[in-house]
Amino acid sequence: MSLSREELQNLRKSYKLGELSEHHCAPTPKFQFEAWFKEALKSEIDEPNAFTLSTINKGFPSARVVLFKGFQEEGPVFYSNYESPKGQQLTTTPFAAATFLWLPLERQVRIEGRVEKVSVSLSDEYFATRPRGSQIGAVASPQGQVVSSREDLEKRFAEIENRYPKGTIIPRPAHWGGFVIVPTVWEFWQGRRNRLHDRVRYSLKDGAWIKERLAP
Ligand SMILES: Cc1cc2nc3c(=O)[nH]c(=O)nc-3n(C[C@H](O)[C@H](O)[C@H](O)COP(=O)(O)O)c2cc1C
User: Which superfamily, per CATH, for 14-121+175-213?
Assistant: First the structure.
């Protein structure tokens, strides 16, 4: 059955949970993000650390969801396969946008900046904390490549599992590690009535964060 126009038109939500003032936002976007992230954690949002990562693929946009795993200085860190499509895109064009959506709080956060690989030691440290199954998955999966079947993937997983019996350390593969987005722009969005939402943008000017209100 096809989707009727009414079904879409009736999806009209009025946002009314909060407000955001450029005068009351934290002096730095990282502080503001941490305050909102703590609220997202308390609000029982599923995977509040999931965000849409947008990259550039030979001039075209490319987006997918990854997980925020901490800060390095002012920038959010995520982990992935360096040889995956996103990994290759970030190597060629090291710029990205991150979009967090916390609908139960009627909030969105956008971050834009340059992307760098984190240090080998940070990637090693984080890899060592991952559950064993995720470590094996990272070694076994050629992320983004065409595979012949699910069975083929399971076979690769089993081979790696046999190579590293329980109790042995699985070293981080060189093709897997962290990226940090070094932000130049952050935007905090709070939904309001009548689509007159609050938007506060922080942009970096001469090493200092400037806060401005944007029209919704
Ligand atoms: C909730 C969620 C969390 C995810 N977290 C990650 C992640 O932290 N790192 C990652 O490489 N892929 C993650 N993925 C998978 C990516 O969305 C994507 O399928 C994969 O990284 C391949 O992307 P690429 O082909 O553009 O390189 C996640 C997907 C979802 C839905």
Answer: Electron Transport, Fmn-binding Protein; Chain A (2.30.110.10)
